[in-house]
TrEMBL record:
The lineage of its organism: Bacteria, Pseudomonadati, Bacteroidota, Saprospiria, Saprospirales. This is AraC family transcriptional regulator. Signal peptide: none annotated. Residues 238-341 form the HTH araC/xylS-type domain. PROSITE patterns: HTH_ARAC_FAMILY_2.
Length: 341
């Protein structure tokens, strides 16, 4: 559920940005009404953020039909937008041209709607903050732990909340700007698009870096975990090293923690804790470290002279250029090309 809510959220922001692309390109001459599809979408952001936060930190959360009531404000906005969306093409072009020239007058009803939109988003951001704070205060009171710790979930949600708080401050500033002017101005589009693009890139970056945190599950949980110590921990650690060095398990781009855990004979959550304790890093960090080391070994080897840098990256287990570059820079502090002679 968390991943679906996040996907919808990002999709709506992309949709908003695309509608602004329409007015700045020749698309406005063909499908000018697409500019109006983004009107009122801000009413969806608040509920989506709140329910996404619940899905990330509340193991009992299940989507219920009654939650759809939270989206009624957008439904009302959509009803208001209908006459605009079915407007004739020539009227749309007149409206867009006046918008771009900065002469489109803002009406009283629009001033009211913008104010309601800002207040609506603020309410949901406050509710999300209170939810995060209440969970944070309860940490340590129970003995149930999760494969993705609650603390990591909360840190991610706080960062996302700060991003949307900045978004709200920006939107409110733009509201004051056009209120003082009395007319719309295209610069508001640029700023709005810039801040939504920033949030999209931030989420995408975290998705590459730590995808498991953005959509964690509660399926694998455990109690009173006993740390691996002495010979038992060393035996499992050697098994992992053997699978990496001899079998080169890391070259499988689809390698999951569950597959490694099965090979060494441990449940996934215990394998994760073993890696944390014995290697001092997460599963993804460990695998990427082996992949980077293998890349460095191969990059100047005669057998791989005909390969491109990205081609070698694929051979050692990376499945995308972005994940390869991110991991390589994080581990070595250098770019892949600096190792090629």
């Amino acid at each position: 559920m968390a991943s679906r809510l996040l996907q919808v959220m990002v999709g709506l922001m992309i949709m908003t940005n695309f509608s602004y692309v329409v007015v700045r390109t020749d698309l406005r001459n063909y499908v000018p009404f697409l500019f109006g599809t983004s009107f009122g979408l801000i009413f969806l952001f608040g509920p989506l953020i709140y329910f996404y936060a619940r899905a990330v930190i509340d193991p009992s959360f299940q989507w219920q039909k009654k939650y759809g009531l939270h989206f009624i404000p957008y439904g009302l906005q959509l009803l208001i937008n209908i006459p605009l969306l079915i407007m004739e093409k020539r009227y749309w072009l007149e409206f867009i041209n006046s918008f771009l020239s900065g002469t489109a007058v803002i009406r009283s009803i629009e001033i009211f709607i913008f104010a309601v939109q800002d207040i609506h988003l603020l309410i949901y951001l406050v509710l999300t903050y209170m939810l995060i704070r209440s969970v944070n205060n309860r940490q340590g009171n129970g003995n149930v732990q999760y494969l993705i710790p609650v603390s990591l979930r909360l840190n991610w949600l706080k960062n996302l909340l700060y991003s949307f708080a900045l978004f709200l401050i920006t939107v409110f500033g733009l509201y004051i700007f056009i209120l003082i002017r009395g007319t719309y101005h295209p610069v508001t589009n640029y700023v709005y698009t810039l801040i939504t693009s920033g949030i999209i890139y931030f989420i995408a970056y975290r998705m590459v870096l730590s995808p498991e945190i953005l959509s964690p599950d509660f399926a694998q949980k455990y109690k009173a975990y006993m740390p691996f110590s002495g010979e038992e921990g060393d035996v499992y650690m050697q098994k992992i090293k053997s699978l990496m060095l001899d079998a080169k398990l890391y070259t499988d781009p689809e390698l999951k923690l569950s597959a490694l855990a099965e090979q060494i004979g441990l449940p996934s959550h215990q394998a994760s804790k073993l890696i944390n304790e014995k290697f001092g890093k997460s599963f993804n960090e460990l695998i990427n470290e082996y992949r980077v080391e293998e890349f460095i070994r191969r990059v100047n080897h005669d057998d791989f002279k005909a390969y491109s840098i990205y081609g070698i990256a694929l051979e050692v287990g990376f499945n995308s250029k972005s994940s390869f570059n991110t991991a390589f820079k994080k581990i070595t502090g250098k770019t892949p090309s600096s190792f090629k002679t």
